[in-house]
Every structure is written in C-alpha cells, then in structure tokens.
Design a protein that fits this description.
Blueprint (H helix, E strand, L loop, with lengths): L17 H9 L3 E9 L5 E12 L3 E3 L1 H10 L3 H18 L2 E3 L3 E6 L2 H4 L4 H12 L4 E8 L7 H13 L3 E7 L16 E4 L1 H6 L4 H16 L3 E4 L5 H9 L4 E2 L8 E2 H9 L5 E4 L12
Amino acid sequence: MLAPAQCGRSAPNPPMERAHLLQALRRRQFQPFLQPIVGVDGAWQGAEILMRWQHPQAGVLAPAIFLERLSDEGLLAATTRQMLHQVRVAWERAPACLRQPFVLSFNACGEQLQSEALVAQCQAWLHRLQWPQLRLMIEMPERGADLGPEYCRSLFARCERADIAIALDDFGVGDARLHQLACGRISCLKLDRSFVAAMQDNSLYSRLIETIVTLAAEFDAIVTAEGIETLWQWQRLRQMGVRRFQGYYFARPLAMPDFFRQMQRRPSVAATIEPARERGGQHGD
C-alpha cells in the first residue's frame, strides 16, 4: 500500500500538469523508499517499495499528493518501472549476502496488471541480480483492479511458473473480489491499516482479523498487517495468527542508503553487506 510517510514540505504542492510530471520522470525525481516487513521475531523478511517525489522546491512529497495525477495522466506504470530500475541499481551497488529468503514487493497499477509484459519484466529484473534468496511480490490493489476470473487465472499461472509472488493489497476495504483467491496461488493478504487502528477500541475488528487469518490459511496464504504503531498491536496480532508486520513501530519508509545502513546492523537477515554508495537526490525520513 502506498501509505504516507513523514515527508517534510517547505512549500505548497507544486504544479502537476502533465508536462511537470513528465519532467520529474525524466529527471528521476520519483524516488524509491523501502519499508521493512518483519516476521514474528522482528527479523526483516522483506520490504515494500514505496514512491516519493523528491521535488527541488517543495521537498519530499508523499504519494497521496501526486499518485492520482500520475494515474490520470497514464504515467503511473512508467514511474513504477523506473522505481524498480532504481531499486535494482541500488542493490547491485550494495550487494548483500542474504541468509534467508527476502521478498521485495511493489504496487502494480491496473495498466501493468493488464499487460502481458509484467511477468517477463519481473523475471528480467531478478535475472539481472541473480540472487537466489531474493524474490519479487506483485501487490494487487483490491480497489480498482477490475480483473475478471479468467484473466486472473492466466496471470496467476504465469506468476507461479516464474516464481513471482502475488499479494492482495488493502484486503477488506475494497471491492472484495474474493474470486481472486480461487484463481490461483496467492501468497499474501495485506491487512489494511484501518483494521489495525480500530481493533483496540472495537472487539469486532479483532474477530474480523481472526476470520481473515483463517481465510488466508485455507488458501495457503499468510497475512501481513500494515500500520503497526505500538507494541500492543504487534503482540495482539501475533496472538491472532498474523505472521508478517509493517509499520512505524519497526521502521518508517527509508531512502535506499538508509535502508542498507540499517540492514547492515541486522545480522539475522544479512550476513555481510557493503555500505551503499550515496547518490544525489536521495532523502531519508
């Protein structure tokens, strides 16, 4: 989920006409940030690639400010591909020796999901890195992903053959296209942050989360809870059977150099890692 992060803004929102967005895309102002995804023991098991706009006047802008405009102008797919390219280059410059599988997930927009090229692009991305421990996960939005059962079966089959994982993002707050669970291998259901925020004051949300965990298990999928901000939330969700977690309690979305520096200090995930080379235009939280 492309959630807002702590992004400072020193000026009002900049102009977002198509020409401005194209210029930002050409100048690589849309920067990838990574937010760790942790397991029940707190060890990093992966990360979600999130988008930030490093604007020269307005500062670092969260996706809520510009994402819809990119989509309206038909530029979201190109921007996402550029994010993946930047992430791959950063990992090539800071090679890590991973002791366990590590999953990088990204949000695919409708244009990408409907493209026959998506799976091949993911395969090429992994082939360039050639790390057997590193996997890609495509996050499909429950809202706005108007894909019929027949197409989903084809897409999921191609992903499974290519060893590309599929996650259903924003699970429970969209259009509830439950047929997707019956169309092929789903690796993960991403529990929306609104469920996590509400469960302490409303016990019905806890029951609902437990039901989602049970549903996921029926289809051999795991649940990742987003928006974890307190120790109590983490402990309660573990008791309910959630196995992966993401949120400010563990880490804010990190610029690539900051991500690698923190990863270097986590021996349970990375055996050795060389410091990433600083590159201009990157900004941490």
